[in-house]
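MODEL INPUT / OUTPUT PAIR
PAIR INDEX: 1
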Amino acid sequence: MAAPRGLGTAGRALWRTLCKAYELDAGELLTLTEACRLADLAADLEAASRKAGLTPQASAEIRRLRMSVATLTRDLAPAGDGIAAPSASDLGRQLALRRTRTGRAQ
């Protein structure tokens, strides 16, 4: 299933990962869409704060956004299916890996 219009790199990656792993109903797709938008917001905030200098407030907000994404995506994963939805720290590691490869946040 194609990702909703307007998603950024982080959101599209999350969308692809979970749509490959699960068959989601309409309500779950709405939840996933919101999680993807939050993932993009976290990535954008992180990129902007890196340019301007990461403040404690920005760092805390990035962490809260990632925790929200993790909570939303965890709710989509059926219990005991053997596939874990990404945690907040997983999302942070993915963004850090992208920065290492490209020299910027995506």
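PAIR INDEX: 2
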Amino acid sequence: MSDLCIQRNQQLHHLRTQIQLTLCEKDQLDPAAHRMTEALLRKRDAPCGVLFCVFGPRNVRLTAVWDFASERVLFYDSAGQRFRAWSVETTAGKQRPRK
């Protein structure tokens, strides 16, 4: 595996971790106790984003959507209200949140 692939995987892992921590922080959930799922979003059979979801107690579901076109991650609480947005730099292999 090339150094660039390894670097991109590390950056993607860091972004996932930051998204999970941000979602869990919203409702004071322990990230180790609440798993996060992800699903690729498609538009006309082309990838357009990723849906991240953390499931908490009492049917609490916190979500984030990484929109590839706008290079943003939008965070939503369990009531569906947006509580945060990040710009994500994805050019030249960089994937890190900019708050």
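PAIR 2 NOTE: The longest strand covers residues 46-55.
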